[in-house]
Design a protein that fits this description.
single chain; alpha/beta; seven-stranded mixed sheet; disordered N terminus
Amino acid sequence: MSDTATPQDERPQETLPAEQEMRERRAAAYRRADRVLARMGLRASLRERLARLQEAAPEVYDLDEPADIYGNGIVEALERRVAALLGTEAAAFFPTGTMAQQVALRCWAARTGNPTVALHALGHPEVHERDAFREVAGLRTVRVTGEPRLPTAQEIRDLEEPFGALMLELPLRDAGFVLPTWEELTEVVEAARERDAVVHFDGARLWECTVRFGRPLHEIAELADSVYVSFYKSLNGFGGAALAGPKPLVEEAKTWRHRYGGMVFQQFPTALAALVGLERELPRLPDYVRHARVVAAALREGFAGADAPWARVHPEEPHTHQFQVWLPYEPDVLAEAAVRQAEETGTYLFVGPWEAKGPGLSMNEVTVTAEGLEWTARDVRAAVADFVARLP
């Protein structure tokens, strides 16, 4: 998902001719756009991605070293870097986060003797993984809450049945990339400990949580027994993930990684791209988060000034560099307005697809990266006014 892929970008699906035409128009408009709030690597051509990697790779690793074989060399170097950043004893590279988290939770289930995982109803394993926890890992999930926020400590204490692990997605993407406060997070973790449960962070986007929490990465990760992080959602990598935690857990996870088919022969392009992301993107994420707040405020002002019938930016002050925009139109109407704006002006304000959220109601995920830092609040308001003028 997003660096910023969305559910529609992620899931294979059949498309009608009109839908395919819109996708092609969106892709062409994005390539030609002069101004976007985020320029995502996943939308670049193979040539562009390889050229960027070739240019940046010498900064992060000695390219005269031998290529990796089954997880040694550069992959081990990446694992050490992640463990150091998160302050854990060890880390293991995985091809996907879906695999990493299944392995982590099944390892914890064996230790706790309880295969039940408590998590949010909007958590990634519940929404986007086709019941993999149950069907593949033999785990059982219980939903703490379905509210568009993280669970509260009281909800953890009041959960009627025992659970071996509490899984917290930080930030909770499908609720609007939302985070609790630091105090709320520590209280939730404490409540899980009171119930003799381990705590696992689905930290696919943990990298950008430091601004909201006011804490460094290692202090955030220290709250949990294990943490998963992604290398492409925020770091603009090619893919891949890491599971970090105590050394005995990580060593067992590597065994399960092999059993799951994750012992890939060579992974140096993905590992290199991850190291580049840690070197280049990670230090800039706080700037993206802070500017996302400027953009969000300007979007609200722009919609109000353009007499839009109804609009909502959620959260009003973004918790990360990603947030949601809701408008009372069907997705195809909004997609047409957005792509026409890009085709006719070179400004592509809403790049991602619009997702139906109810009759006549749609949502778009907005991301701010390096390109977005060039936008002033006035730029955003002007782009909103032009966009709204294209709506019926």
